[in-house]
């Protein structure tokens, strides 16, 4: 995805972030916020933008007496897992090691511990962010509670720049059971049986287990299926819990009793450093009938031109996720059975359009039997994306946006927009001089001010355009 920002500001602390927001306001510079840079549609980047990159803000600490974990805004899953595991703790984080914890948790946060500990956002106790004025504010259940509610499920980048988070620590553990089941060279009919088994099994599955299941069509394996997951218990018990899958023809399986860190490391090793793909996600709120299952299998029966992998993945929900009331956080789809994710992967750039069209053409069929989309697996072609991502919470989120970002300072193509007047010149100038002189001796900031002046002289940035009319 080729995008060219004018400036990338690598912030080292929350004051750097505050300076960057104030400077962008001064220059009418469109902002993007980046940590791990894993947004599937590239919304953490943009042409002619100022990218606030928090990836160097990687401080982590914990207080065992208070049962609290303190995480700066640039920490990744890998860094967090290594830290908590060294103290004997697990954490309900994501599966990809290089994903930023802030973006993960703000979007809800699905992971292989979610049915046991809840989504990533369910462990949040407090956030600290830089708001549209460049001020550093906190939000928790007692202070800015509406903002705290919105930031637990409404995605990153809508209300400010997250500079730190406080999480509740889960109980200490010794080991978990890592579950791996594979079925190679299967038939479409066997994939149908697999999907039926999946939804029947998930309806009353033990909450200590969280699985990903997948049917796929790849150059290397042909039609195939797999299961990966964690069980917070011993292998013998795990084997009994997933017995329906082991009874399917061709099952090859392994149950390893390993440390939590080993388990997340093994899962994370399956992610390539880079790949070209297009995908779309949906929530499943009901059981599929036989005809619907057959139609789902047919979605991946033929790969698009140039595709090396086409798959339909299922991410288990339920358990602790559904025990929390829908209105407790901005994550709306608490009652979904699972997330379903359609994807295709290619290697040569010339096949990009064919693969994108393949997803676009299949989306209506998938949408007809599903409801809403997961904001952490975004899709640029979604109609009515606010309602798709946030359901009935969309209207409340617009009100929170109006309160905490009245001038749409924090925007991106699928952000939460509101109709507003442009900021006044006095507001744009507010705080710029005193803020920049605070670090006048810092070489990095001297360079930053120089770039600011050059950009301002060349008029590279235009005042922000109000795109909110179609969203209100």
UniProtKB/TrEMBL annotation:
GO terms for molecular function: FAD binding; oxidoreductase activity. Its cofactor is FAD. Gene3D superfamilies: 3.30.465.10, 3.40.462.20. Residues 1-172 form the FAD-binding PCMH-type domain. Pfam families: BBE, FAD_binding_4. It comes from the Bacteria. InterPro entries: BBE (IPR012951), FAD-bd_PCMH (IPR016166), FAD-bd_PCMH-like_sf (IPR036318), FAD-bd_PCMH_sub2 (IPR016169), FAD-linked_Oxidoreductase (IPR050416), Oxid_FAD_bind_N (IPR006094). The keyword Oxidoreductase applies. Keywords: FAD, Flavoprotein, Oxidoreductase. Belongs to the oxygen-dependent FAD-linked oxidoreductase family. PANTHER family: BINDING OXIDOREDUCTASE, PUTATIVE (AFU_ORTHOLOGUE AFUA_1G17690)-RELATED (PTHR42973), FAD-BINDING PCMH-TYPE DOMAIN-CONTAINING PROTEIN (PTHR42973:SF39). This is FAD-binding oxidoreductase. It comes from Clostridium aminobutyricum.
């Amino acid at each position: 995805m080729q995008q060219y920002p004018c400036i990338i500001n690598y912030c080292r602390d929350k004051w750097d972030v505050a300076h960057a927001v104030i400077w962008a306001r001064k220059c009418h510079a469109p902002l993007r916020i980046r940590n791990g840079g894993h947004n599937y549609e590239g919304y953490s980047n943009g042409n002619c933008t100022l990218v606030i990159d928090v990836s160097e803000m990687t401080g982590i600490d914990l207080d065992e007496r208070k049962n609290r974990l303190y995480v700066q805004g640039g920490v990744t899953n890998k860094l967090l897992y290594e830290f908590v595991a060294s103290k004997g703790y697990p954490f309900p984080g994501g599966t990809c090691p290089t994903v930023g914890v802030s973006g993960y948790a703000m979007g809800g946060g699905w992971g292989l511990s979610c049915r046991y500990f809840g989504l990533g956002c369910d462990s949040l106790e407090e956030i600290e962010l830089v708001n549209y004025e460049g001020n550093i504010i906190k939000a928790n259940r007692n202070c800015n509670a509406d903002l705290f509610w919105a930031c637990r499920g409404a995605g990153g980048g809508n209300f400010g720049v997250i500079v730190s988070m406080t999480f509740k620590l889960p109980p200490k553990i010794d080991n978990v059971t890592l579950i791996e089941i594979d079925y190679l060279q299967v038939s479409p009919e066997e994939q149908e049986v697999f999907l039926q088994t999946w939804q029947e099994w998930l309806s009353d599955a033990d909450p200590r287990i969280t699985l990903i299941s997948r049917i796929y069509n790849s150059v290397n394996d042909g039609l195939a299926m797999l299961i990966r997951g964690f069980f917070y218990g011993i292998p013998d018990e795990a084997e009994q819990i997933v017995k329906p899958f082991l009874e399917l023809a061709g099952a090859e399986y392994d149950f390893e009793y390993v440390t939590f860190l080993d388990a997340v490391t093994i899962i994370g090793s399956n992610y390539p450093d880079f790949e070209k793909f297009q995908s779309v996600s949906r929530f499943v709120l009901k059981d599929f009938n036989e005809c619907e299952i057959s139609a789902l299998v047919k979605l991946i029966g033929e790969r698009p031109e140039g595709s090396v992998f086409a798959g339909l993945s299922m991410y288990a929900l339920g358990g602790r996720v559904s025990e929390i009331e829908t209105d407790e956080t901005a994550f709306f789809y608490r009652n979904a059975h699972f997330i379903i994710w359609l994807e295709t992967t290619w290697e040569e750039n010339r096949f990009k359009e064919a693969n994108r069209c393949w997803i676009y053409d299949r989306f209506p069929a998938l949408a007809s039997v599903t409801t809403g989309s997961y904001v952490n697996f975004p899709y640029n072609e979604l109609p009515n994306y606010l309602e798709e991502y946030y359901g009935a919470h969309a209207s409340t989120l617009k009100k929170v946006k109006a309160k905490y970002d009245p001038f749409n300072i924090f925007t991106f193509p699928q952000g939460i927009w509101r109709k507003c007047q442009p900021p006044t010149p006095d507001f744009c100038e507010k705080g710029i001089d005193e803020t920049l002189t605070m670090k006048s001796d810092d070489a990095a900031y001297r360079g930053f001010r120089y770039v600011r002046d050059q950009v301002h002289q060349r008029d590279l940035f235009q005042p922000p355009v109000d795109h909110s009319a179609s969203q209100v």
